[in-house]
Amino acid sequence: MEGSIFQYDFIIKGLLGAIFASITAGLAGTYIVSRRMVFLSGGITHASFGGIGIGYFAGFNPVVGAAVFGILSALGVEYLSVRQKIREDSAIGILWAFGMAVGIIFIYLTPGYSPNLMSYLFGSILTVTNADIIALGIMSVVLIIYFSAFYRTILYISFDESFARTYSPYVNIFKYVTTALVALTIVLNIRMAGIVLVLSLLTIPPNIAMIFTKVYSRIIVWSVISGFIGTAAGYAISFFAGIPTGATIIFTLVILWVIVKGIYVLVKTIKK
Amino acid sequence: MANLLEIQSLSAAYDSNIVLRDINFRVNENDFIGVIGPNGGGKTTLLKVILGLIKPFKGSISFNNEFISANTIGYLPQISTGDINYPVTVTDVVLSGMMIKKKIISRMSSTDKKQAREVIGELGLTGLEKSPLNELSGGQLQRVFLGRAIIGDPKLLLLDEPGNFVDSTFENDFYEKLKELNGRMAILMVSHDIGIISSHVKSYACVNRSLHYHPSSEITNEQLLAYGCPIQLITHGDVPHTVLKQHNHS
Lengths: 272, 250
Description:
The structure holds two protein chains of two kinds.
Chain A: H1 2-34, H2 38-58, H3 62-83, H4 88-109, H5 117-122, H6 130-149, H7 151-159, H8 161-167, H9 171-193, H10 198-212, H11 216-241, H12 245-271
Helix pairs in contact in A: 1-6, 1-9, 1-10, 1-11, 2-3, 2-4, 2-9, 3-4, 3-9, 6-9, 7-8, 7-9, 9-10, 10-11, 10-12, 11-12
Chain B: E1 3-14, E2 17-28, E3 32-36, H1 43-51, E4 58-63, E5 74-76, H2 90-96, H3 99-102, H4 110-122, H5 138-150, E6 156-160, H6 168-181, E7 186-190, H7 194-197, E8 203-208, E9 210-214, H8 221-226, E10 234-235, E11 241-242
Parallel strand pairs in B: 3-7, 3-8, 5-6, 6-7
Antiparallel strand pairs in B: 1-2, 1-4, 8-9, 10-11
Helix pairs in contact in B: 2-4, 2-5
């Protein structure tokens, strides 16, 4: 009896996790992929590991530490790119390694063994708490409201920023807010897919969608759908096969990308 | 005729490099001003100062707020800064020109979309409404960006070297279109090609760090030289030719 309640809870958690992860990653992912910010997002992801290490060391929730590190590094890089006084890719590369270094130093300094370290690096649904799911749920609602309210504003700023500056004094504010939301999305999804793999959760679904549509709003919708298929299937497979969740999700998403691409090429060849 | 904007003893610089020095300039309703001058003379900078993209370090620019502000000007940049591989359609880009009226909250109404269809039709782009930008030719792309500049019906339209991309089949239509637009908006057109613009503009501004305004559409070599405006003159005839500066053989 106890076993089935545990299983039920596990399935609900996994299902909700898959829904919220695909909504948040689909919205934020479409933004970063079309704005070519994938490398920046990788930097944010790895920089946030510094916050996880400090969280462990100081004894507060590592996700909070990661969120602070992630958002600050995201805003820092956006600020530097607005000022255009520094090579952006170099700054990201430095930030990337620095965050990892800080994280490892502080985890090393923390007395005792850190059992959850692997789950932060590679993701594990077993360590996902109810609070994590609720946070992802709130994030989904925030992103849906934000992107629906400012859809065209966001679209036009990221398509042609310097033109947007001719009609709007708010370009920088929108860039900062959207980037901060992307950083938060990444950090909240770290529990699902892990630091090493979370970026693919954001980048693979939009790339699946862009195989067959070039319309921004449709890319978002299809990213969420393909993200959900990949996450839910990956989650189920990892559960039955007893293999790591994050890795299985990413593996499933890549297989999905290959299948969709294959079908698209096939259909195109037949039509010719 | 109402005054739209007035620039008074304005100087602007990139970093420490002074590009515009002590210029005075005004634009009135229904003006059609050709902005000419050498490369690097400050033509584009002048447009960017008007748009508020570059802040002058000296002097002032004031708008007649009854008609315009720095954020309600139509603008066709010289080189498009948009990423043409970005997932936007022709209609999306044209519609983005409506933002000069909408600022932040930007749901496009069906009236907006109808207007976008009209502009797309007027610019000879019908059939391409849903195309992504990377499937268009250079000339089509330029017309999309022109559509973006005019759809919001601005009181002032700034065009930076529009001739660069306009393909020959559309050239006449393009200048006819500008003439028609000039009925409801002032136009400031940057061009190094005097031959092309002389038959369309009403007056000239020669920009070479300083600015000289010439209130007539007829302009002669002597006047240009007197203004210290070393431009390259391109004329059009049955046989394509370039006129070289006269020189003495000794």
